[in-house]
């Protein structure tokens, strides 16, 4: 493990693991840490040395004296580049690969925009960022959504009630309900959700540019979706992925909770 000290941002903690030699920068999903991918032992970790970064308000990463106002304004997109620059200072400027799950995909895709000539491979699992997710847009950018999000953060009963409502109308399934409820059952967790989602609201890749760069630099791409994932399903993003030359796309019989030992077995069999 180690730390990146990023000027103007803070201290980013990363986990280092895997028996392979090829470096891969990895970005986890909400509620996890950079160690999330350690379960992919037989597939990814046998080929790569993974450097998994903790998001802020997760693990041991810490913002450098940011005020609440700064957090709610969101992290400037250009600071994502600093992740790689500071990592290069420690490990040397070299070719790398990228891996991400869920909301972490936004950071990986932004780094691909910044360093297309240095990227060998991109692996995304249940990815956010490929198409706009309306719920996040509502909570992060719309006035009513921001107000509702803030109110739910301060309330003991509103957030659970809203979760039960969206579950009743089948906007989420039981597994997503359980995951979400476990992230809002204390005041601190509710505030961490609120700050986390607002902090990353400007971290959106330009997917037209991403597709162009992938094709131009012949970057190997693998996309993995859960067949029962109601949060980031495969179907809405197929038109975009179809523009990427030789992209591999897999839909496995799982939900959004994708990074598990079960997925490791699937990846070994699929020879990803």
Write the topology of this structure.
Layout: E1 2-6, E2 10-17, E3 22-27, E4 48-53, E5 62-63, H1 68-73, H2 79-91, E6 96-101, H3 105-114, E7 119-125, H4 134-141, H5 143-154, H6 158-168, H7 174-182, H8 187-199, H9 207-217, E8 220-226, H10 238-241, E9 248-252, H11 261-270
Parallel strand pairs: 3-4, 3-6, 6-7, 7-8, 8-9
Antiparallel strand pairs: 1-2, 2-4, 2-5
Helix pairs in contact: 3-9, 4-5, 5-8, 6-7
Provide a descriptive summary of the structure in words.
- The protein is α/β, with parallel strands linked by helices and 272 residues long.
- The chain folds into two domains: 2-131 and 204-270, Rossmann fold, CATH 3.40.50.1820; 134-197, no CATH class.
- It has eleven helices and nine strands.
- The chain has helices spanning 68-73, 79-91, 105-114, 134-141, 143-154, 158-168, 174-182, 187-199, 207-217, 238-241, 261-270, and strands at residues 2-6, 10-17, 22-27, 48-53, 62-63, 96-101, 119-125, 220-226, 248-252.
- Strands 1, 2, 3, 4, 5, 6, 7, 8 and 9 form a nine-stranded mixed sheet that branches.
- Strand 1 (2-6) and strand 2 form a beta hairpin.
- Helix 4 (134-141) crosses helix 5 and helix 6 packs antiparallel against helix 7.
- The protein is globular.
Number of strands: 9
Distance between the termini: 26 Å
Average predicted local confidence, pLDDT: 87
How many domain regions? 2
In helices, the fraction of residues equals 25-40%
* Coarse shape: globular
């Amino acid at each position: 493990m180690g730390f990146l000290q990023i000027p103007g941002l803070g201290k980013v903690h990363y986990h280092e693991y895997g028996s392979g030699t090829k470096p891969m920068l990895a970005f986890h999903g909400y509620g996890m840490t950079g160690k999330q991918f350690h379960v992919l032992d037989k597939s990814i970790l046998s080929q790569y040395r993974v450097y998994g970064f903790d998001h802020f308000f997760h693990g041991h990463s810490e913002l450098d004296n940011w005020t609440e106002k700064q957090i709610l304004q969101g992290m400037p997109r250009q600071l994502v580049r600093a992740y790689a620059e500071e990592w290069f200072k420690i490990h040397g400027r070299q070719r790398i690969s990228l891996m991400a799950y869920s909301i972490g995909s936004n950071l990986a895709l932004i780094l691909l925009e910044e360093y297309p000539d240095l990227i060998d491979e991109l692996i995304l699992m249940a990815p956010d960022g490929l198409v706009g997710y309306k719920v996040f847009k509502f909570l992060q950018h719309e006035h009513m959504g921001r107000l509702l999000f803030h109110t739910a953060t301060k309330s003991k009963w509103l957030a659970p009630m809203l979760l039960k409502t969206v579950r009743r109308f089948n906007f989420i399934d039981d597994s997503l309900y359980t995951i979400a409820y476990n992230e809002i059952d204390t005041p601190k967790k509710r505030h961490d959700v609120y700050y986390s989602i607002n902090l990353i609201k400007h971290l959106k890749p330009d997917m037209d540019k991403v597709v162009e760069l992938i094709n131009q630099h012949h970057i190997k791409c693998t996309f993995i979706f859960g067949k029962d994932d109601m949060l980031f399903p495969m179907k809405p993003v197929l038109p975009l992925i179809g523009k990427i030359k030789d992209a591999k796309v897999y839909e496995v019989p799982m939900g959004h909770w994708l990074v598990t030992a079960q997925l490791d077995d699937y990846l070994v069999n699929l020879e990803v």
